[in-house]
Amino acid sequence: MSGSALTVRQRLAAYAGLAKIQISAQTIYRSNYLVSLLGLLFKVYLLKEVWVAAYPHSRATMGHGQQISLSAQIAYSTLASVQYFVFNPWTLSGIPERVRNGQVAVDLARPVRYTAQMTFGQAGVMIAGLPFVIVALPFAILVGGAEAPASAGAGLGYAVSLVPAFLITLLTGSIVGITAFWTLETDGTSIIYRMVAQFFAGALVPLWFMPGWLETLASWLPFQATTYTPIAIYMGKSGSVVSTIGLQCVWVVVLWLILRLLAVRALRRVALQGG
Amino acid sequence: MTTEPRDFGREPAGRLIPWWRSYLVLLGAAWRSQFQYRANLFIMILSGVAWQGVGFAFIWVVVAKFGTIGGWSLSEIAFIYGIRLTAHGLFVVVSGRIFVLDTVIQEGEFDRYLVRPAGALAQLWNRQFYLPHLGDLLSGLVILIAAATEIPADWNVLTVGFLLLAVLSGGMIEGALQVIAASFAFRTMNTRQIRGMMDDIFSNFGGYPITIFPIAIRLILTFVIPLAFVAFFPSAVLTGRSGGLYVPEWLALMSPLAGPLLVLLAREVWRSQLKHYKSSGS
């Protein structure tokens, strides 16, 4: 790999540059963000009303062996929707487009690993969306609801667990993106991925309300570590915080290995594909 | 392009070929262009199913846990969801890409529509066939048929007829609202956002019993954005709930008429706005 020729400092500068390009590219689509923010608020509001309508009159129920009050559930769905929105901007990855039009050749000629380029580019897209989220958050809390973290430790645990959650989102997105080297077309695949990931992340319904078999399935997939896990920590419903975050980190390593393995094979295919 | 100022609103050339023939010719062309790529066919349709299916999976988990949502059982909500989605599927499958009107105008493609022997709206309507839409229609039909056999409705010629008309009308309602919103592209050239918002409201709120919302939202979803007429009122009628609604019963019973009425309105709006069309010159 050509990446080894650079010093650590040069490489970090390159990563920051890759992210910055995406940040400035995204600001062109400001009005799109505003519309999707409105869509986010509709979703937060809808989820709230559904929970209100579904909950029994006592406004409390059991899930996963724990008491889940209506206000806690609304706080969960509000935070989950906003967090999912930040982590999953619509421009998932530029790989399919660039594979199709051949620009990927330029990417490969850069002295930074291709996987790193993808990852930091995606990070830039997400960072560009952050200001919009800061604007949206108060409105989301207004149409939905919020609760303080279960304890100071839970709040800290939440902040820490967002890091592996973010990395897992980047990695699964990149893994789906890199399949473009084989399929040359991922519009359909990426929609399917988004929908499946959103559901199993617990972005719509938390794992504690899923039927047993579905919960088992969800807990063996990496997606729950992106949305459900941090919020469960925040609400003090995750069990041991340290081992929960540890498990997230295991997922980061596993997914990174899968991505590296796929990347090596994918780059070999480029030669076959030609310009 | 120079044209003497004439009344485009009447779409003069449209009379040369019957509208339904030009419609079929254009629809055929749009379909053929998409079916060129068979490898993607399956995955694209599946993506439409996934897109719509995840919303239903959410409802299913909630009802599995709590029994009902606002007093509606799973099969009854599925019935609402199925009508909404089938109506939406019908609209998107036949409408091609009304969604791209802004681009069509901005890039000057619309000029060509005006000189062809078919109505401008019909050409836009059939501009491109988008495969995931077929997934919308398929998942809608599957959910609707499965739910219809489950709900305690008395199926006879009258009720089945009402259901079919309601689904058609539902598709017309969504189509008419999209055309009305798109019409304003002739003035502002940018209606994507308002149409995207409409689409958002339809797909988020359309599959639920409207009565779970506070009265202000119900009234908006009935009289401002007539979403309640698409699936909720027909479902309320067929599940024997039309007596206790927040509107008079006759209004719910008339819901199959809402679509045709809105289509007539949309046609007038489209024609009146088309007069404001100025070529972008590109």
Automatic annotation (TrEMBL), chain A:
Pfam families xrefs: ABC2_membrane_6 (PF06182)
Membrane-spanning segments: 123-146, 158-184, 191-211, 231-259
Q: Which residues form a coiled coil?
A: none
This protein's UniProt keywords: Membrane, Transmembrane, Transmembrane helix
List the InterPro entries.
ABC-2_transporter-like (IPR010390)
- The residue range of the signal peptide is none
**Protein's name according to its UniProt entry:** ABC transporter permease
The uppermost taxa in this organism's lineage are: Bacteria, Bacillati, Actinomycetota, Actinomycetes, Kitasatosporales
